[in-house]
Amino acid sequence: MNDTPSEKSDRREFIKCASCVIGGAIGLVPMAAGVYVAMDPLRHSGDGTAKTNDGFMRLATLEDLPLGGAPMKYSIVADKADKWSRYKDMPIGAVYLQRTTEKQVVAFNTVCPHLGCFVDYRKEEKDFFCPCHNSNFSQTGALKTGVSPRGMDSLEVELRNDREVWVKFQHFKANTTEKTPVNS
Q: Are the C-beta atoms of residues 96 and 71 closer than 8 Å to each other?
């Protein structure tokens, strides 16, 4: 069984072509899987906003807030998602809560409306103070002194089940006289 040189050449060409096709198919599978994984987030919605119940978050109960007491700071944590990543329980801000009457609670965003610095509550002075540019705000959130273009940003509060304090947390545009919500 002697093969002619032509048959040997045809067999070599066939083996070369078959090797290229098989190698290409083997390489194509992981490459296709990689492209699918990289493009998958684009098929799903992920707008970068924190997901909460109707925009409201349960932060406290009426029993947690003494009537007429000093404002208390509460951290806001929520799940965040973007096109490629999902994060559980990420800090997204903070609010001050104060119980003003038996069934009324006020809430303020802790961010100064001037340039976004964090505002502190000072117990001795009974006011809110922004250390970045020395703006002072009364306990009602009104601007007392300083360069802030408006008072502190109040937030919507709901009492649910007659005792749970729910707050709709939002960020607002800085350094404007209008209180304009922004998507975070």
A: yes
Of 60, 78, 56, the C-alpha closest to 155 is 56
DSSP character string of 49-67: PPB-BTTEEEEEEGGGS-T
Q: What is the pTM of this model?
A: 0.68
Residue 79 banded pLDDT, cuts 50, 70, 90: confident
Strand order in the sheet with 154-160: 56-61, 164-168, 154-160, 104-109, 86-101, 72-81
Question: To 10 degrees, the CA torsion angle through 38, 41, 47, 50?
Answer: -100
The 3-state DSSP class for residue 24 equals helix
- Long-range contacts of residues 133-138, Cβ cutoff 8 Å, at least 24 apart: none
pLDDT score at 29: 75
